Amino acid sequence: MTRWHAILFLGLIASGVGLAGCSSKAALPARRAPEPTGPRLTAPTKQPERAAKPAARESTLSIYSNPEYGVSFRYPRNFALEEAGDLNENAPEDVSGAHTPEQLAQEEPGALLLATVVVPDDTYPNTTFAGGSLQLAVNRYLTAGSCRRELISRLGDSNGRTGTATVQGVEFTWADTDEGDGSTEFFERDYAGFANGTCYEFFLRIGVGTTDDADGTRPPDEKKILAHLEKIVSSLQFESKSVSLLDATPSGQGSVRKR
To answer: pLDDT, tens digit, for every residue of 13-45?
Structure first.
């Protein structure tokens, strides 16, 4: 064997060894990371959002809103809301004590009845409760001073209780009086307050009939009933008026939203 042949033979042997080494490494399986031995964590599933339930108090109330005079209030849903045109002088006798627009105009010239809330006569069973009502009226012809003074002078009952109450930053004067109507006596409380260039008035009425021991009825709790009506007064909200009251002709109910 020549020298050249010996070099070629050694080169072939070296190439074979290299290929064998590569093949052995390629045949080895790839190492995998050890699996965790602890509990397997899963991504939290998002719960579907539930629709918000209306508050119980909100679901039992309705809203009266009059954009023309920029005023609204809440009242119990089971009470009846009557618009100005629902009460008239030819209507049957009303045990709620509510004024008709004609009666109000006679007692207070310039006053305009907007809404009447009537308490159902069966609201207080086993009592002599004869009905109740709350009315909202406005008078554009009274000033800030005469608005409250007119209330006291109109009632003309020096023995009746009077006072003041602040509703939504507006001071209201209130006055109590009693009136009899046949077998029914009415306890009355009127409010008057001035805002937005207008005199706003509330008239609260509670009718009480005579007690009859034979049927087991008892007098109703007038203070409790009055407190329920005063909650309506305290819910009063002043809103932005849709038109200027100085430019508009009083039209009674105007545009009313009831919800």
So the answer is: 445 444 444 444 444 455 555 555 554 545 555
For the chain, give the mean pLDDT: 76
Among residues 178, 168, 175, 205, which one has the least CA distance to residue 191? 175
Q: What is the largest CA-CA distance in the chain?
A: 150
pLDDT higher at 152 or 13: 152
E strands in the chain: 61-66, 71-76, 80-83, 112-119, 129-139, 162-167, 170-181, 184-195, 198-209, 237-238, 257-258
Residue 205 lies in domain:
56-252
Tens of pLDDT, residue by residue over 122-145, are 899 889 998 899 999 999 999 998
State the average pLDDT over residues 79-89: 71
129: left (phi over 0), alpha (psi -120 to 50) or beta: beta
- Residue 126 covered by a domain: yes
> The dihedral of CA 188, 211, 184, 83: what is its sign?
positive
What CATH number does the domain containing 67 carry?
A: 3.40.1000.10
Give CA–CA dist 171/158, Å, rounded: 21
